[in-house]
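Notes to self after the call with IL:
- keep both proteins in one doc
- input above output, always
- annotate only the second one for now

Protein 1:
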Amino acid sequence: MRMGNVRNFGLAAMALAASSCASPASPREGDWPAFGRTHLGDRHSPLTQITPGNVAQLEAAWTYSTGEAAIETRSAFRLSTTPIVVDGAMYINTPLGKVAALNPVTGAQIWSRDFAVDRRGDFPDSASRGVSFWRDKAAAPGGPCATRIFVGVLDARLASLDARTGASCPDFGDGGVVNLKAGLRTGADPKWNAWEYELTSPPVIVGDLVIVGSTVGDNSRSRAASGEVRAFNARTGAQVWTFDPIPQDPNDPAYKTWSGPIAHQTGAANVWSVMAADPARDLVFLPTSSPSPDYWGGGRLGDNRYANSIVALRASTGKVVWHFQTVHHDIWDYDNAAPPALVTIERNGRKRDVVIQATKTGQLFVLDRENGEPVFAVEERPVPPSDVPGEVASPTQPFSAELPPLSPQALPKAWGATPEIEAACAAELAGLRNEGIFTPPSLKGSLILPGNVGGVNWGGVTYDPERGLAITAVNTIAAVVRLVPKDQRGRADFKAGGRLGDDGAIMLDAPYAMSRFFLATPKGEFCTPTPHGTLVAVDLRAGRIAWSVPLGMAPGQTAPDGKAEGMVNLGGAVTTASGVAFIGATPDGWFRAFDTASGRQLWQAKLPAGARATPMTYLGADGRQYVVIAAGGDGEGFGRSDQFVAFALPAPGRKVN
């Protein structure tokens, strides 16, 4: 591993206030009080009522409609919320700014608030992924705002609500709201896009601090909005600290890994995914993204440390404890999209507290939680150089050496479902740079595999400690990226030709624009071998892939999943102690259950739209275990809906046909 890939800035114990570092009480066995069940983010439930033997009896128990499906919007809004359940109530949010409390047994609404996000807003990522719960130990039980819901509203407002009533907590910020656009090093540019800076994921709470990241529009400009992570006092909303992944202090050891004319003016490298926290260690773990713009790094040469990294901060101060970079000098849009999972594994005969990070590159990194050192070996391997004038790609990249890749890393020859399609794909591939993973973008076009959706995207991993399995949804679709020179007026001639997944960006402050699309024939036939999406289980005791099965069916396909093509997926899985894994995530609109030990599909149910979300499970007051997923689609390939759907076994005493 290259020296400096892990940096340790002092791990000596600190004298901390009890409210800042004490471990929170473990959640009640039947609750799901945070996005990843706990702030550790393992997404594993101890519940055992639903088993591999009875999961096929699951039936819809209730649905809840947000009422937003029929609203016309400028952006394609994505209901990707994972609900939380705590103290007998379920809490959800929507991308249009609605927050609601529901009865977890019936789905009946208890209260709702509407923060009225502008429907005309041009939001780069118009998604909602959930809310956070906080109990004020200094408040009188049952008093106003003694328990609070914190929600990041899409238009960059952080709101604090009384969990019992939904009323704003007036002592927090300005009448219950903090404007997250205020105080940034570089803010959104109204001349470019006033909605460039957003909030799509729930904050993480450690002690009395609410810690929040941001979403910054991709590929917009070199000087994009800054991706600072900030901590606010949970009672008052006062800012306690800020951490900028683009180091601004020349004394910071990472500062010198950024060079070039605008290196330290670069934006993004933000945390748009979900953070994890270890309150007992006073640590918060940030999965950072790529610096701006995604596909051109000539203005920010060097490794760009803290970007594309897992950064462990002292939660009480925001100071760096250690960091591990998963991609050096990212020019592929290889964000750390997946939330970190903090789990305990058995390795070489002893238990280790680790951080599991799955990446868009299809790697699975397992790091010591205290110091960031790899628990499974990591190697720096040579990768292809850039041939674009002004660009300098990193000569090496980190690879997980002891764990196999989760997705293909190269496409050595053309592939097609028929000989005719294969010939058309060979023609598409012939003119591209194609040198395996980390082939840099080029002027003639480069094959990028994994593509910008991964590998592993924001669905991340769920970890089953009973079986030692890390389970994740994986994409295998290749993309083509071409850099397009600009003329003197800053214009570029895009010639993607309406390709499948066609996407382009002018990339302000850069000499090139970007054209990107899936590797496919002009007719839209994929040139990447099937399956195009998989559900993969990695055995962390043996260091091998335990099983891999196709996930999702292509339009019109009726074969069982064992023969399915597998589809691009966005969303994650959850596991239970009884050995069942649940996942939606596919555009075909099915919600599925798998046997955790073998990968065998056990059950599926049709949803009103594709579930571009991660499910959760909890024990209701009626004694039944429920599984809930947001089946909101995305207004595009996943369909469109506004429903949360709950499933449970039949009520006791009712016969099942």
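Protein 2 (the one to annotate):
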Amino acid sequence: MALKNTLTFPSSHGNKFNKSTAFTKEERIKFKLLDKLPFAIENTKQQLCRIHLQLNSLSNADEKSKFLMELYYHNQSLFYAFAVANLREVMPLIYTPQVAKRCSSFSEEFKYPLGTYIAYPDRHHLATIVANVVNKNIKLIVVTDGERVLGIGDQGVGGIHIALGKLMLYTILGGIDPNTTLALVLDVGTNNNTLLTNPIYLGWRHRRISDKKYYQFIDQFVAALKKSSSSMVLHWEDFSRDHAWTLLNRYQRQLPSFNDDIQGTAAVTLAAILAAMKLTKSTLGQHRIVILGAGSTALGLVKLLLLYAKKIALEEKEFKQNLWLVDKEGLLTDRLKNLTELQGRYIKKSSTISSWKIKNPKNITLEEVIKYVKPTILIGFSTAPHSFTKTVVRTMAKYVSRPIIFPLSNPSDRAEAHPRDLVQWTKAKAIIATGSPFAPLNYRGKKIEITQCNNALVFPGVIKGILAKGASTIEDEVFLTAALTLFKLTPMQKKNLAPLLLPALEKIPAVSKIIAKNICLKN
């Protein structure tokens, strides 16, 4: 992306033309800035040097994250130039894990009206609000209702930071013009009692509305979007498991829309699984897969795995036989009630596990599943920290020479296991990928890199391709294309013993271009 030293964000977000110390002499005279700035005139390189010095002077990640948000507000072009030049350092500060902190402390830290807010009590003005902010230049909207932010739950209006974070990555990694994007939160209340009793909470202080009112409100919102613009992509972000699939199915063919938690996570995880299978010289049909956490994210992965299985001529029945979903109530079986329609497709019949010696047939634990299934792949979407216990992992490793273990819950303190423990418990035989970034480990003098299943490897390229193609819908096959493209770009393809299952963060801009190209080439 060509970065000019001009501010490139909507005028409502601060000074649109701020160049700070890079204003020329002529510009300072023209805009009456001679007395507002020190005498020296700097170029972008000099400005970036100062930003680095200021960032490094801060003592912790929280302070650094706040500093970058200040920079984003006051001088977006400088923010993006710095982020592009320092990807590995910046990404954890503007997205996982620090974005969780920004969401949870939104009301306490609020200074600037970043993003767009539409509250349910203002629904009668919804069409006017949308018309004010959505014009022919807007090509991409990231929208959330803040109900299920990462692994920290309901953050109400604070969810705006997750939308802002995603848009930052679209520009940094996909080169998408921030002038054409919009972060938006639909404030439909919150069930977070901490927020409801917080005297300075900035959202609508009300419990979340009923489903009937909720879907009427979303219908009204989507109708207003379609009226304002017919050529944009709608990115649904961090909606609850109860709403995520419904919204995706309801609007996927009304306008180009997708859910990154469902489809983006599935694509990057599938790519990592394929890389792990290459390392173990195995195929999907040879694996027994256990997934802890049977919500929308897990079911999104299962759907994409089924699409891949079809591509390689693996029978759906055979795939399902080797798939085991475990949720809060234990293994999904025909004994459980209140399962969703999607979950019901993957239950195990009681007759198939009648030989198991278990304590409670209505709540079959992960430990019991591991013991009897002897899985080769274990994936976590549970947000239940430390649920991949020493017993679980060692039992798995007892039967599998190279266990594939992906604790993918975010942020890092919600991960099902710390990579350090997985390495120690399996004597470094586990093939690991995580949801949040973790530092490299040393095991008996050997450096072990930890792969991060970061959605940023997928969604910027996918939407860059969709926008370039001008697609009217975003089909599931798009994410299979993205996953297979990403797999082909992994270090595993070039060096069989490479430590990483997926490309490094620094490679994402190049990866995004290739994914976008391959999507455009598909019919």
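Annotation: The CA atoms of residues 124 and 457 lie 39 Å apart. DSSP finds 22 helices and 14 strands in the chain.
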